[in-house]
Amino acid sequence: MKIWVISTLISLVIATIYYSTGSDDMYGWNLLLIPLVTIPFMLMNKYTEGMLLGLQDILTINFKQIIGFIANLLFLIIFVIILDWGIFGAAIITLLSAVVVLIYSFIILNKSVKITKEKQHNVTSSLIKKGFIYAVALFILSLNYKIDILFLERLSDSVEVGIYSVGVNLTELIWQVPAAMDGFIF
After folding, report:
1. What is the pTM of this model?
2. Dihedrals φ, ψ of 148, to 5°?
3. Whole-angstrom Cα distance, residue 158 to residue 69?
4. What pLDDT was estimated at residue 23?
5. Which of 11, 18, 36, 60 is the most buried (most CB within 10 A)?
6. Integer distance in angstroms from the first to the last C-alpha of the chain?
7. Sign of the four-CA dihedral 152, 154, 155, 159
8. What 3-state DSSP class applies to 60?
9. C-alpha 71: how far from its chain's center?
10. What is the DSSP string of 105-160?
């Protein structure tokens, strides 16, 4: 839990610094507060996914991703199409989807794992050292995939960035199909 709190605080500071360099002028802090609130939920989702991976419960991890996709689609229909909340609705979708997936993860983990407050400092420090290297590599990889959106944000308006972002996300979802089949073939 301590690792989650520290990583959440670091992420919130970095995101706040990034948003204060110009995004607050375009969107306002009312809208930017939603992605900041989403960060703790997204991080806890990653931690629970790591726990499920440690339990070798790949089926639940895949089902968790399907639930996230369905929640995202359902909230998209409600908030963007029916209620026509626009970019505010899209931000709320990310938050609500993360909360739904996190609730599902906690329900599954509560059945599988007994959580105690016993501390094992040697295991924790080893995990932090190995995880830090992985986190830096994953950050660079994610930045590689999202750098275009950062540049586009500076060169275009929010509607075009939103349309581009949705298109990229749909393309990434399509990539999941061959990646899923790869596990069966090889």
Report:
1. 0.70
2. -65, -35
3. 23
4. 59
5. 60
6. 37
7. positive
8. helix
9. 13
10. HHHHHHHH--------HHHHHHHHHHHHHHHHHHHHHHHHHHHHHHHHHHHS-HHH
Reported as type and span, the H/E element at residue 5 is helix 2-18
The 8-class DSSP code of residue 57 comes to -
Place of tokens 């026509």: 84
Q: What is the pLDDT of residues 158-170, one digit of tens each?
A: 788 888 888 887 7
DSSP H or E segment with residue 170:
helix 158-185
In the chain, what's the furthest Cα-to-Cα distance?
52
| 57 residue type, one letter | D
Contact 8, 39 (CB under 8 A): yes
Structure tokens at 39: 């960060």
Which residue in the block uniquely carries the two structure tokens 């599988």? 112
Q: Give yes or no for a contact between 42 and 99, defined as CB atoms under 8 angstroms apart.
A: no
User: What's the confidence (pLDDT) of residue 18?
Assistant: 79
- Does the pLDDT value for residue 6 go beyond 60? yes
Contacts 24+ apart (CB under 8 A), 149-158: 153/23, 153/26, 154/22, 158/26, 158/27, 158/87
61's CB contacts (< 8 A; 6+ apart) are 49, 52, 53
DSSP string of 70-100, one letter each residue: HHHHHHIIIIIIIS--HHHHHHHHHHHHHHH
Q: Which amino acid is at 71?
A: A
Residue 103, both tokens = 């609730």
**Tokens found for residue 82:** 């029916």
- The DSSP code for 55 is T
